[in-house]
Amino acid sequence: MKTKYLEDIVAWISLILLVLWSMLPIFFVITSSFKHPKEIFGWPPKILFNPTLINYEDLINVWPKFFYALQNSATITAVSTVIILTISTLAAYAFSRFHFKIMNFTAFSLIATRMFPPIVITVPLFPLFSELHLLDTQLIVILLYVTFYVSLSTWIMMAFIDEVPVNLEEAAMIDGATRLQAFYKITLPLIAPGMVSVSVLAAVFCWNEFMFAYIFTATRSVTAPIVISEMLGGLYGAEWGPLFASSTIQLVPMLVFVWAVQKYLIKGLTMGAVKG
User: Fold this and answer.
1) Residues 202/155, Cβ–Cβ less than 8 Å
2) Closest by alpha carbon to 73, among 263, 232, 257?
3) What are phi and psi for residue 43, nearest 5 degrees?
4) Rounded to whole angstroms, how far apart are CA atoms 70 and 128?
5) Do residues 234 and 246 make contact, with C-beta atoms less than 8 angstroms apart?
6) How would DSSP label each residue in 176-224?
7) Nearest to 69 by CA among 239, 200, 247
8) What does the pLDDT look like over 48-63, one tens digit per residue?
């Protein structure tokens, strides 16, 4: 009994230390955004300080481009996430419910493409998109994000759909429902936690993605991570004040989104349906 109690204490202490270690960079970025630039890297670091908005004022005055890029990021992320979720859910349902050799090969091909380094895909696509005059458009960034992430999302959704008993859909179809109605009224509500998980993963990927946006955008469809990287290479070195302010602003939407859907991430999947 004492040994188990000691193991629990060690586990909890390890978990707390891990969380603190993970939160330390975020805490540093947020607090630094409210410090005077001269105090950001002061030693010893100040935990208690007089907060100021000078970094946010500099960001607004010197880097208005960031807020334009933030709008691009929001549009690209929202559209990409909806498309990824729709395609991956429908594809996962087909792979889970229809078992043919060609379906198994297609499912394997999806995950195989995800194994390629992104740079291998982007190099041959650049001249092609240049000829089609698609560079520096939101459309091309959305297409790239969807193409690159829909494979992994499909496999995640397959794991959730496989857990839904087929006899639930068959019972609905015996009662007169079509397969589409059975999918919409029976399966879809049960895989809601999986859809939320895929939405969170896809949104975080699209919101923070750098390489595709760096290569295929320039001015019109530039995203927030690209502008933040430009702050690191200013004429007089990194502009740490606006950099931390912009990083904090970019961090907030994803934190709010994850916080808003967190209760759906921990819901049971089919427990209630099976027991009923």
Assistant:
1) no
2) 257
3) -130, 130
4) 27
5) no
6) T--HHHHIIIIIHHHTHHHHHHHHHHHHHHHHH--HHHHHH-SSTT--H
7) 247
8) 788 889 999 999 998 9
Locate 92 and state its tokens.
């996962």
**Residue 103 binned pLDDT confidence (cut-offs 50, 70, 90):** low
pTM for this entry? 0.84
Burial of 190: CB neighbours in 10 Å, binned 0-12, 13-18, 19+: buried
Q: Going from the N-terminus, what domains does the chain have, and what CATH number goes with each?
A: 54-275 (1.10.3720.10)
Exposed e or buried b for every residue in 251-266, given b needs 16+ CB within 10 A? bebeeebeeebeeeee
What pLDDT, in 10s, does the model give residues 233-252?
766 667 888 999 999 999 99
> What is the largest distance, in Å, between two alpha-carbon atoms of the chain?
72
